[in-house]
Amino acid sequence: MKTRRRFKGAWQFFTAAAVVGACLSAQALRPHATVAQQLGAAKETPKASDAPKPVQIDLGKAVKVSLPKTGEDLRPVSFKTNDGREGWVVRIPGGRPLATPAYSKGRLFVGGGYGSHEFYAFDAKTGKLVWKTNTGDDGPTAAVVEDGLVAFNTESCTLVVVDEQTGKLVWQEWLGDPLMSQPAVSKGKLYMAYPGNGRGHAMQQNVLGQTGQSAAVVVHAPEPPQKKEGNQDGQESGSHRLLCADLKTGRHLWERAISADVISAPVVSDGKVYATTFDGTSYSFDAATGDLIWKKENAGTSAPVVVANQVVVTQKEEREGKAYESVQRLDARRGEAASANPLVRGEAGYLGKDKGGGVAIKQEAQSSLDASVGFASTPTAAQLTKANAHLGVNTVVGGWAYQGSRAAYSKGQMLNAQGRYLNSVNATDGRFAWRAEVSGGGLTEDAQVFSPPALGEEFMYLSSSLGHLLAVGQKDGGVGFIYHFPEPMVFQPALAEGSVYAGTSGGLLVCLKTGSQDADGWYAWGGNGEHNKNK
């Protein structure tokens, strides 16, 4: 008998956990097709007349969470929701917007927010501070963890790698100002975008900044790339660079020119590195050599998702003076569209010039945050004129926080949050499983309500620009829970050991204990260090 699992009140947690365990065990025993088999050959997307199953989600029905006064900074305070769930909250000094926490071995790793000079490790269960390190530059991004090392960069202007257990600096390198994306790591290599001007090579130095820690940094410039026939033409044209470095030592392995800074982060999958830049260009590089596989000026609006032999991107379209955003599949080998029609298309007023791109930081706050780090005017290196024309992003903090309508893949379905809608579409034939319209809670007509979803096994978890945390069933769009916290949440949440972790625009790190192990396995922005977790 098939049982639909729902989140319940605290008094049912133990029963729910038993049911969840039984269901997951049974599911694990069933034979599944591989991802490639589920996708199969690309088929034509059905016409818009194929109506999805309609679902309504009313944010006005959210359970309001009144957080206790946090008192001293960096000390966790417990809270309990009106329907019985528990959690903790920590106030990070400075009250700045926080990026997605990274999780590893029972710890959370998170920067002090845009404009801060601190980076922290907390105990994931209790919220207690484990260690803290100071950075020489401001604005730590979301982190990634691999092989006992935590990698992140600061907005201004340094790539940093520290020891996971102690926070001790391993190496760091000044790359350029500003850095609006975050790094990716895979199999001992680190990938990072940076502005290509004003930077030296082949230097050795001891770094001793505000960290108070000394670490030898050896930077080896890679061999100049050789021009090749065919798809290599033009690969060295662009204002920015994509760097591949050894994670443990910082040694440069290769770098290639790209047209602008990378949206969110590079994405690594099956020996390839993919990226979408702020001017809408999509790239595929060989992860080992840096050779350009393909480059497409396809109006991309978020970091790609790679599933088997397909790359799923969101794209901007303009028709009759209106902006639209769609989800499209590309062939991973050549970058060509896999079908004539997109999987999903909808109006996207938030992508209009000077509209902010749907970032969950108010425009006046963005200007103030930029001014606080020395950007009284737009820095030329950020190339924000391109970002504004394409995405509506016109500040450095806006680029730092922008994530777009990036999709996620689970069990044959592509799931994404786009404007006021949540979509679930069959990844093979493009047919809707369901579409949820979100209302209530003070939404505006052209709002980008949610950051990209974080995936559990059966639910997807979302944070909103109005301070909501939601669990929504992947199969049917049914609501597991909706909570309303007192501050907007800027970035995608992380999931670990039954808890949802999210940062707010005002510097709160929130842990919500769901009572279900479904909330697990999404340990960084994009799910993992490669930013390409598929379920």
Structural description of this entry:
9% of the residues lie in helices and 38% in strands. The chain has 535 residues and is mainly β. The protein has a five-stranded mixed β-sheet with strand order 1-30-29-28-27, with no helix packed on it. The chain has a five-stranded mixed β-sheet with strand order 2-34-33-32-31, with no helix packed on it. The radius of gyration is 22 Å and the shape is globular. The relative contact order is 0.16. Residues 1-49, 200-212 and 218-235 have low confidence and may be disordered.
Mean model confidence by pLDDT: 86
Strand content: 35-45%
Lateral arrangement of strands in the main beta sheet: 1-30-29-28-27
Distance between the termini: 24 Å
- List low-pLDDT spans: 1-49, 200-212, 218-235
Q: What is the tally of helical segments? A: 5
Radius of gyration: 22 Å
Sheet with the most strands, sense and barrel status: 5 strands, mixed
Helix content: under 10%
Q: What sort of overall outline do the alpha carbons produce when their principal axes are compared? A: globular
How many β-strand runs? 37
Structural class: mainly beta
